[in-house]
Amino acid sequence: MKRARIAALAAFALLALVPAASAPVLDRARSGPCVDDPKVMRRVHMDLLLHGRDETVLRGVRDPRHDLAGCVDCHANKADGKVIGTASHFCQGCHAYAAVKLDCFECHSSHARDALRTARREPAESGK
Ligand code: HEC
Ligand code: HEC
Ligand code: HEC
C-alpha cells in the first residue's frame, strides 16, 4: 500500500517533469516590452483578453493595452506575420501544447497589421 503510493507519487513527479523538457519553442516578440511582466502574462493573459472582450462588446469600453490586435502585432512571426499556423507560432504553439482551445481567430485577424510600424515603433501618423 505504502509502496504503491510512493511509486504513484514518483510517476507523477516524473510526468510533471516531461512537459518542461518538451515545452514548445515559440516565436520571439517583434518588439517590447509586453503589456505586463511576461511571467504574469503567462498566467493572466486570458483574463485580460476575455475581460476586454466582455467590456467592449457589452459595455463599449476599450482598453488599448489589452487590444487583441496589439498582441498580434507584437507576437506575430517575423516571416509570415502570424500568431497561428505552426507549433512555433506564438498563440497556437503554446495553446496546442497546453491543449487549450483558441477560437478567437475565427473572427479576429491572426495577422499583424503593419509589420514595419511595429518593428520600428513608428507613430501611426508618420505615413509610410
Ligand atoms: C510591445 C510588444 C508586445 C505587446 C503589445 C504584447 N506583448 Fe506579450 N510579450 C512581449 C515580449 C517582448 C515578451 C517576452 C517574450 C518574448 O520576447 O517573446 C512577451 C511575453 C508574453 C507572454 C509570455 C510568453 C511565455 O513564453 O511565457 C504572453 C502569454 C504574452 N506576452 C501575451 C500577450 C498578450 C495576450 C498581449 C495582448 C494583450 C501581449 N502579449 C502584448 C511583447 C509584447
Ligand atoms: C506560454 C503559453 C501561452 C501563450 C504564448 C499563449 N497562451 Fe493563451 N492560454 C495558455 C493557457 C495554459 C491557457 C489556459 C489557462 C487556464 O485555463 O487556466 C490559456 C488561455 C487563453 C485564453 C482563454 C481560453 C478560454 O476559452 O478560456 C485565451 C482567450 C487565450 N489564452 C488567448 C491567447 C492569445 C490570443 C495568445 C497569443 C497572443 C495566447 N493566448 C498565447 C497559454 C498560452
Ligand atoms: C464570433 C466572432 C468573434 C469571436 C469568435 C471572438 N470575438 Fe472578440 N470581438 C468580436 C467583435 C465583433 C468585437 C467588437 C468589435 C471590435 O472591437 O473589433 C470583439 C472585440 C474583442 C476585443 C476588444 C477589441 C479588440 O479588438 O481587442 C477583445 C480583446 C476580444 N474581442 C478578444 C477575443 C478573444 C480573446 C477571443 C477568443 C476567446 C475572441 N475575441 C473571439 C468578435 C469575436
Record keyword descriptors for this entry:
mainly alpha, about 50% helix, disordered C terminus, binds heme C
How far apart are the first and last residues' alpha carbons, in Å? 71 Å
Radius of gyration: 19 Å
Q: Which molecules are bound besides the chains? A: heme C
Order of helices and strands: HHHHH
- Are there runs of 5+ residues with pLDDT below 50, and where? 11-21, 116-128
Q: How many domains, in number, for the residues?
A: 1
Structural class based on helices, strands and sheet pairing: mainly alpha
Structure description:
The chain has helices spanning 2-21, 38-59, 68-75, 90-98, 115-120. Helices cover 51% and strands 0% of the residues. Residues 11-21 and 116-128 have low confidence and may be disordered. With 128 residues, it is mostly helical. The protein contains five helices and no strands. It is globular. One heme C binds at residues 26, 42, 45-46, 49-50, 71, 75, 83, 90-91, 94-95, 98, 100, 102, 104.
Summarize the structure.
The protein is mainly alpha-helical and 128 residues long. Helices cover 51% and strands 0% of the residues. One heme C (HEC) binds next to helix 2, helix 3 and helix 4.
List the helices and strands and how they pair.
Layout: H1 2-21, H2 38-59, H3 68-75, H4 90-98, H5 115-120
One heme C is lined by residues 26, 42, 45-46, 49-50, 71, 75, 83, 90-91, 94-95, 98, 100, 102, 104.
